[in-house]
Amino acid sequence: MLTGYEFFFAILAIAASSVVIGTVGFGFALVAAPVLLLYLEPQQVVVVINSLIGLMLAMVLVRNWRHLELRPSMGLVLGGLAATPIGVLALNSASPGVLRITIAIVVIVLALVSLKNIQLPFARSKVAGPSFGFLTSLATTTIAIGGPIAAIYAISQDWKPDRIRATLALLFITSDIVAFALYAATGLVTRDTLANIGVMIPGLIIGSGLSVVLVNRINDRIFRYAMIAVIVVAGSATLIRELSGA
């Protein structure tokens, strides 16, 4: 269980992560993972982060549920649920290095395409929702970093920020609930894991409160560029870390 200075820095990281995800709808693990990996085993970091993401996005969904449109969201959600068991098995048995590199490259390329306002025909097809949902949950349950993939899909739909936050919240909540049950069934949830989730909740609440203030001050254009910036930085950091062997 985290104590002392480890606990202090972890709380700061969780608070900052909560501000990011509460504002743009994703990016929690991108901020929290590098810090938590200093103190916890990688598998425990994935479980802790995904559990906290589920709790944080429950608060986001409560604030934005009026903007949620269920029918367009169901493809993402069903695709995500289908990938969750595969991701949990991968976390248990496989090295995620190659998956990290592949995801990072795809994320960076698609984010730069989105920055140029070039439409992705596939992202608007009938199979795009389930496909992006599948890839998002596969990455999330395996390495805790899948938000940029879903964000690329949401950007391609030209959705408003409130709708993006609500849709991504629904996707991650449903996936995280199933993932947590499977984590527990496969022995990845221990007493220390539950304790570390519990002590991080104050940071979650602090960050959530700050994100409410920021959300009301960001217009649609800034929101879009903020999302793309987070995607590019995340993908680049992941790629550099893997290629350097860190």
Main sheet overview: none
Distance between the termini: 24 Å
Shape verdict: globular
Low-confidence stretches: none
What is the percent of helical residues?
A: over 70%
- How much beta, percentage-wise? under 5%
Oligomer: single chain
Q: What is the CA-based Rg, rounded?
A: 17 Å
Secondary-structure-based class equals mainly alpha
Arithmetic mean pLDDT: 83
* Total tally of structural domains: 1
Instruction: Count the E strands.
Output: 0
Number of helices: 10
Order of helices and strands: HHHHHHHHHH
Could you characterize the architecture of this molecule?
The protein is mainly alpha-helical and about 250 residues long. The mean pLDDT is about 85. It has one domain. Helices cover about 80% and strands about 0% of the residues. α1 packs across α9, α3 runs parallel beside α9 and α4 runs parallel beside α8.
The gist of it:
The chain has 246 residues and is an all-alpha fold. It has one domain.
List the topology elements.
Elements: H1 4-24, H2 28-36, H3 42-64, H4 70-93, H5 97-115, H6 128-143, H7 147-156, H8 161-185, H9 191-215, H10 220-244
Short descriptors:
246 residues, mainly alpha, 10 helices, 80% helix
